[in-house]
Amino acid sequence: MPSPPSPVRAAVVGSGAIARGRHLPALAAFAERVSVVALCDIDRALVEATAAHRDIPGRYTDTGAMLAAEAPDLVVVCTPPAAHKDTAIAALKAGAWVWCEKPPALSLAEYDEVVRHERDPSGPYASYVFQHRFGSGARRLRRHLAEGTLGRPLVAVCHTLWYRDAAYFEVPWRGRWDSEGGGPTMGHGIHQMDLVLSLLGDWTEATAAMATTARATRTEDVSAAIVRLASGATLSVVNSLLSPRETSYLRFDLEHATVELEHLYGYDNAHWRWTPAPHVTDPDTVAGWAPRRDEPSSHRAQLAALLDAMARGERPPAGGPDGRRALELATGMYRSALTGTTVRRGDLTPDDPFYTALHGGDPAAATAALRRTEADTDA
């Protein structure tokens, strides 16, 4: 398939806060490379108001009608998670590339179904919004890891400690297995989990615990796991929606340095801290870490990489196997927590019930298990 024309004709499906606050501004920043030709949402009034504000000519309430009428080169999916798979497949079948919000899909089965509708070797392909891997700090650390200048990674920490009050869960699709897929492990911590795995590589086994502690949700509101990586490093993961002092904290203990990142919803170079190991005598090994350019993690940074991949007719980063890692780890964590076992990455095959749904095939039983108290367990 030939590379998309320039400017790329883009359509946005979903007109909620993430589209208005992140995707449409990012697309506008590349006006010389992208033209937003259509906006689609089931809420006609919201479509009209948003499209008028952004001067978008095509306005639709049906994705199929939009695809047929506009024939976009790129479809940006900003719907609630339950609609990700069908929207992505419809766009791919229409010949459009896809950039979809997280989580990529409700299950590995859905993710793999989308991949089957991609067209090798030159697209269209689907990729997913994991913008934190595209900031200059992460890119610099990735280079150090590839070159081995900081030694082997030994220990890592991946904490997404956020706060969401009771009103947050009053939105009908939130906190439900059938519409959100899972809780903070899927919808919140998946960003930091993707960043860690994009840096350190694949995981091999996970042992997790989850609970519904303080919010009215059918899924978890907190999770934790110890994860072994193929590199031999050990990773600690915690995801919470119950933490009043919110933070997103990553730590990498390598042979020659500790590298830390603390931010909330996005970072720049100032959010990184590098500490040399006691035996390091060359200060440039660590003190000279900072990239020359300070590019924050952002939708805009990832969009640039996506547009470059489209121009080359190549699979973009955060798609295919590269975009699957974080969803795969989340699946392993749910399977471990709900079965009380250590899960190996190779266990998540199509014949496993957690491959199809993160509740393992019985949503009511999964919800009940997450709500058990210590007294219930003792009884």
UniProtKB/TrEMBL annotation:
Chain ranges of the GFO/IDH/MocA-like oxidoreductase domain: 139-248
SUPFAM superfamilies hit by this protein: Glyceraldehyde-3-phosphate dehydrogenase-like, C-terminal domain, NAD(P)-binding Rossmann-fold domains
Top-level taxon of origin: Bacteria
Domain Gfo/Idh/MocA-like oxidoreductase N-terminal intervals: 9-119
InterPro entries membership: Gfo/Idh/MocA-like_OxRdtase_N, Gfo/Idh/MocA_Oxidoreductase, GFO_IDH_MocA-like_dom, NAD(P)-bd_dom_sf
UniProt-recorded name of the protein: Gfo/Idh/MocA family protein
